Structure formats: structure tokens, C-alpha cells
Amino acid sequence: MFQALLIDKTDAGYGCALTELADDRLPAGEVTVRVSHSTLNYKDALAITGRSPVVRQFPMVPGIDLAGTVEASDDPRFQPGDAVLLNGWGVGEVHWGGLAQRARLKADWLLPLPAGLTAWEAMAIGTAGYTAMLCVMALQAHWAAQGVAPGAGDVLVTGAGGGVGSVAIALLARAGHRVVASTGRPHEADYLQALGAAEVIDRATLAAPGKPLQKERWIGVVDAVGSHTLANACASTRYGGAVAACGLAQGMDFPATVAPFILRGVTLYGIDSVMAPLARRRTAWQRLAAELDRALLARMTRTIPLADAIAAADDVLAGRVRGRLVVDVNA
């Protein structure tokens, strides 16, 4: 038997509860993992609360991330005792996920835990931090092609107080960029500056409808917000700059014009973390293990027990959570 959060949708409604399940309830897969830690991401919060149709099969164990130890494997790439992690692949949406003490998964979805990272650190990074690194990789490849050096201009990070934003600030600042953090929580300025932000601006300056072209400022943008914020970020990106879009906290819409792209040569990169190929995932995780300051990671992370994850989902959606939430599924 093992404990898990279980979402179900019946005639009585949609609900999520901490449940004890038998091992024979686990779905098909080549590798069984004893989970030690998971996370609570924005998508997990949507799934738990039912505020967006994230879950597409019922019943469902949520949790798009997990880290733990292989218990059994029918695939030669993994042996009992191996430390592994997982992000995405539809886990927690169409296949039982990581907010549980045990998971059974396809071997193709798993990565060995990078050397130097603990399971807790991997989940403190989680999908949010891994997505932030994918954004940084896209921007850095673009800058390298354009001959843009670190320090050549400001880099904007929106949704800065969240998980993606927090990790992106730390990574970009360490790489030598001047980072401007946009947040709706001005009281978090000290926190954001401690991560490496050189300047903190109110998200209201970006969140309302704006002009198709605005004063050029950013050489690059990491945007986890979407909607008018993304449109304004593109409109104020410098000639030849780039924007990496990975989220929709403000909305899925993109009320923009083609002006920044055809008049300033701005490039918009769409960053998908769910189905990213394994080679890109490995590179991202190896770089996270090497480049992300562990002290900053600890500063941006709080750990909660599995039983508290349901209540914490509302806080995530309301923007009351700073940085990252690790879920200790055995606490």
C-alpha cells in the first residue's frame, strides 16, 4: 500500500483527496519508482483544484515531477537502486504522476539523477527550474548567433516571484546579465535582488494593453505570463533580440502585432518542457547541476508534506507562493 493524492470526477463532482492505494492500482510501465520527493507546480495546482481541464483521464494521481529510486525495472537502462527523476511527458495528466509514494512509468520518460544533485534539490528545481533553463538555453543560443555578449543590455524576467522566474533570475545573473524582474509583489524586491535581479519593476507596467512598438530596452526576455505582458515584452525588445515564452499566468491570448518581428527582427521562442527530447533534457539538467547556486536554490524553496499539497494548490494559483514548493511524499 502507498499514499497518493487521487483526483476523481464523478456525478458528485470533481475532487482531490489523500488516499491509500494498493500497488496493483499502479498503471502499466517498465519501471517502478519509490518516490521520495515531488513538487507543486502551477499545472499541478490547476489539476488539483480543477480550475482548468489539465487532467484528461480519471482517476488520476497528479504531479508532473518526481524524484526517487528504482524499485523494479524491465528495461536494461535502469536497475534497482538507481536514482532517477522525471518531468512532463503527460505524467499527472494522462498517466499517474509524482504526488504519491510510488509510481510506475515508461523507461523512456526517466533521466538518471545528475551527479551532484540530491532528490530534494532536483525537485526544488523541478519543471519550473528545468523550464527556466530551457528558456536560458534558447536565449543564449540566439545571442551567440547574434554576437551579443553578457552585459550588452537588460534581460527581462516576468512572473519573477514564481518558480520559473526565480530560477531564471539566478541563472541569468550568474551568467553576467543585468536582470530586470517584473512582479506583482513589490514586497519581494529584497528576495529578487538576493537572487541576482539588478532592478525590480511592477508588473502593472506590462500587464495592460500597450503600443505595437515601444521604446527598445530588452536584449532578451523570459516570459511566464503571456497575454498583454508578453505582447508588451515583445514590443519593447531591442532590434535582433529574443523572447522565450513558457507560461500563461495572465492568459493564453497574445494581443500583439507583427511589428516587433518584421520591423525589429525580434524572435519569439516557444518553450515546451513537456515533450522536449531527451538530449535537450539531459543538457538542461547537466547545466542546472553545474550552474545553479545551491544556496540560492535553498533560499527560494519551501518543503511541505504530501497532506498539505491540496491546500497549497490554492496559494499557488493565487500567487501567494514565492519560488518553489517541494513535496516530501513520505513526510
TrEMBL record:
<protein>
    <submittedName>
        <fullName>Acrylyl-CoA reductase AcuI</fullName>
        <ecNumber>1.3.1.84</ecNumber>
    </submittedName>
</protein>
<dbReference type="InterPro" id="IPR013154">
    <property type="entry name" value="ADH-like_N"/>
</dbReference>
<dbReference type="InterPro" id="IPR020843">
    <property type="entry name" value="ER"/>
</dbReference>
<feature type="domain" description="Enoyl reductase (ER)">
    <location>
        <begin position="15"/>
        <end position="327"/>
    </location>
</feature>
<keyword id="KW-0560">Oxidoreductase</keyword>
<dbReference type="InterPro" id="IPR014188">
    <property type="entry name" value="Acrylyl-CoA_reductase_AcuI"/>
</dbReference>
<dbReference type="InterPro" id="IPR013149">
    <property type="entry name" value="ADH-like_C"/>
</dbReference>
<dbReference type="Pfam" id="PF00107">
    <property type="entry name" value="ADH_zinc_N"/>
</dbReference>
<dbReference type="InterPro" id="IPR036291">
    <property type="entry name" value="NAD(P)-bd_dom_sf"/>
</dbReference>
<dbReference type="Pfam" id="PF08240">
    <property type="entry name" value="ADH_N"/>
</dbReference>
<dbReference type="GO" id="GO:0043957">
    <property type="term" value="F:acryloyl-CoA reductase (NADPH) activity"/>
</dbReference>
<dbReference type="InterPro" id="IPR011032">
    <property type="entry name" value="GroES-like_sf"/>
</dbReference>
<dbReference type="InterPro" id="IPR051397">
    <property type="entry name" value="Zn-ADH-like_protein"/>
</dbReference>
